[in-house]
Amino acid sequence: RLVVIGSLNMDLSVTVSRLPRPGETVSGADVVRGAGGKGANQAVAAARLGAGVRMVGLLGEDTLGGELRAGLLAEGVDAGGIAQLPGVSTGLALIVVQRDGENTITLSPGANHRLDVPALEELAEPAGPGETLLLQLEVPVETVLAAARSARAAGALTVLNAAPLPALPLPSELLAAVDVLVVNETEAAGLLAPGPEPDWATHARRLRALGPDTVVITLGAAGAVAAGPDGPVAEDGFPVAAVDTVGAGDAFCAQLALALGAGVPLAQAVRRSCAAGALATTRRGAQAALPTRAEVDGLLVR
Ligand code: ADP
Question: Is 244 among the catalytic positions?
Fold first, then answer.
């Protein structure tokens, strides 16, 4: 079983012909609503990929919160670890997209930032042996650290997608408390002190020296590299007609956590995750674009 502790947001997007300048008003197309937040995206991704998933997180006691909870249930995610807080807003992303794809995003984390350590203790039993815990950084970092530590102590596999990177350096205890670290190129570079330009395989090896047993760096269309206990891994991306890369990283992380949790060898797990990421780029949107297990199987045998 997979447990995701993380963020839930509603994404409201409006497409405009030109982004407004400060002080300016621009009218655009109709609002498109989409469920988002890295935590919820990864929980839904894992459910579509065939896993039993429990999500732990906070919503506001408002309409958007109710919609997000219903959406998770419709995807078959166990929402028993999600509470709706009175007097707090559900996390919201206001997205304005220019026709050429350029965008601005204003994020209101709302209830996601109320997930402190006492709130987590109230909502979630610590993960147990045989379970996998999947974490991101859109809820307070002290909560992520506490969750990782208790999961590790209980014998669960702990996977951290260190995204988005906070402005402040990550506590070094956090990398020491996770089994698997997944980052993209920007995050990988941000976690290491600037030095001579190494290749990504070297980056992964250096990050591994900071604590995680396995480090995976995603490289967009180029696939991913990893450093694990049995040495380096490199997998090419799958050639697909990409239309929107939103959701690719979330599909990748969910698939990786599932495969490693099931004992799949690292190279094979990374390859499968690249297939899931690639499929997510072939459709628009975040959760709407996430692939099913059958689609991943189909791309792998093609
Ligand atoms: P993020 O969106 O978090 O920055 P990446 O862009 O690295 O993450 O994408 C995650 C994974 O999705 C990549 O490792 C790759 O396997 C897959 N992917 C992303 N973009 C493409 C693409 N254009 N073509 C094929 N696969 C892609």
Answer: no
